[in-house]
Amino acid sequence: MAKRPLVVAHRGASDVSPEHTLAAYRQAVAAGADGLECDVRLTADGHLVCVHDRRIERTSNGRGVLSTMSLEELESFDWGSWKNPWADLDEDADLPDPDLRKVLTLDTLLSVVRDAGRPLELAIETKHPTRYAGLVERRLIEALDRYGWAHPKVGTESPVRVMSFSWLSLRRMRTIAPGLRTVLLMDRVPLRFRDGSLPTGVSYAGPSLEIVTAHPEYVDRAHKHGHQVHVWTVNADADVRHCRDIGVDAIITDRPEAALKTLAEPPTAPVPTVTYPPRRRPRRHT
């Protein structure tokens, strides 16, 4: 029987709570997720915040390019009301929850992982291109160092892994913190790596769901090269089952609670193929 993939909450439990908010991550931890996933961007005054987009219009009531703004400016915006824009019209609703509306710093999320009370992994995606280039990686290592997670001792492993679509970003990480695990995210597999290999120093493959759906054999190829396969973004129950059945090591999902329930189901036994002997043609009598 295929082993259960790890369930990693994509931007927190982002199907039910506003993505990248503290509430979304706390909900994912409560649901039993094995890990959390976040994107990080650097503010104009040098803080790493958990925001996916280059511009802030989609997930806040502000406007503009995030990298041109200070943390104080970002904290003045509402980062959660877009998920439920009619909440203010509900007279029975609770008072606004700051955990649903405040921009989340990476440092706060790191403390969630530290204080979870159980092993919990964190996958951090560095967003590129950015005006700050390698400064993002340096600030990230500084943040991880404060928790003792940037340079794990021999025989130990940091709970953090760094992901990127940028090979350059992962090479920087390898230079600064060679003990950290890295994941190369791919929306297509470059021709030279279709045999399951990865660039030197990259720990894990991070293909999209579309890749492993069209080419399930890629998972075995990566495993033969000693690489885990972490797939994004896996939300439908059928896709969760498919990833389990082909041996994916981790799924990144907006719906961690639902994914865990699906993975707890016993796998459906394959229907046996019955082979019948060829029918003998009756002998013709002349």
Automatic annotation (TrEMBL):
Q: Name one GO biological process term.
A: lipid metabolic process
Which molecular function GO terms apply here?
phosphoric diester hydrolase activity
Q: Which SUPFAM superfamilies match?
A: PLC-like phosphodiesterases
Residues of the GP-PDE domain: 5-263
Q: Region Disordered: start and end of each range?
A: 265-286
**The name this protein goes by in its record:** Glycerophosphodiester phosphodiesterase
